[in-house]
């Protein structure tokens, strides 16, 4: 009889956006994201695009959780 070991997967910090980008499946649902200090906000084609951008440019954009539409029609900005 074989024993099964259950494991719980979780993210480790700092988040490896390159690994997330490789495993991500594009769904074309636009995402509004901001940096941790809220100084820069950008619209991405989807969450996978955000991961790819973070990987390529060593950025740390995170998806905004409260929104009606991507960035609510407000243009992207940078402080």
Blueprint of the fold:
Layout: H1 17-23, E1 31-34, E2 40-44, H2 47-57, E3 62-63, E4 77-78
Antiparallel strand pairs: 1-2, 1-3, 2-4
Helix pairs in contact: 1-2
Structure write-up:
This protein is of the alpha+beta class. The protein has a domain of 42 residues. Helices cover 23% and strands 16% of the residues. It is built from 2 helices and 4 strands. The chain has a 4-stranded antiparallel beta sheet with strand order 3-1-2-4. α1 runs antiparallel to α2. The mean pLDDT is 82. This is Kazal-like domain-containing protein.
Q: Largest beta sheet: what is the strand line-up?
A: 3-1-2-4
Q: What fraction, in percent, of the residue positions are helical?
A: 10-25%
* H/E series: HEEHEE
Regarding quaternary structure, what we see is single chain
Could you tell me the mean pLDDT? 82
Distance between the termini: 61 Å
Number of strands: 4
What structural class do the secondary elements suggest? Answer: alpha+beta
Number of continuous helical runs:
2
Cα radius of gyration in angstroms: 16 Å
Ranges with pLDDT <50 over ≥5 residues? none
What composes the largest sheet?
Answer: 4 strands, antiparallel
Give the amount of beta strand, in percent. 15-25%
Globally, the shape reads: globular
Organism: Arctia plantaginis
Protein name: Kazal-like domain-containing protein
């Amino acid at each position: 009889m074989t024993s099964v070991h259950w494991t719980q997967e979780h993210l480790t910090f700092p988040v490896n956006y390159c690994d997330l980008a490789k495993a991500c499946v594009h769904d074309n649902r636009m995402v509004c994201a901001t940096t941790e200090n809220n100084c820069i906000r950008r619209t991405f084609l989807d969450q996978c695009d955000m991961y790819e951008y973070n990987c390529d440019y060593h950025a740390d954009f995170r998806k905004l959780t409260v929104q009606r539409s991507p960035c609510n029609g407000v243009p992207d900005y940078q402080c």
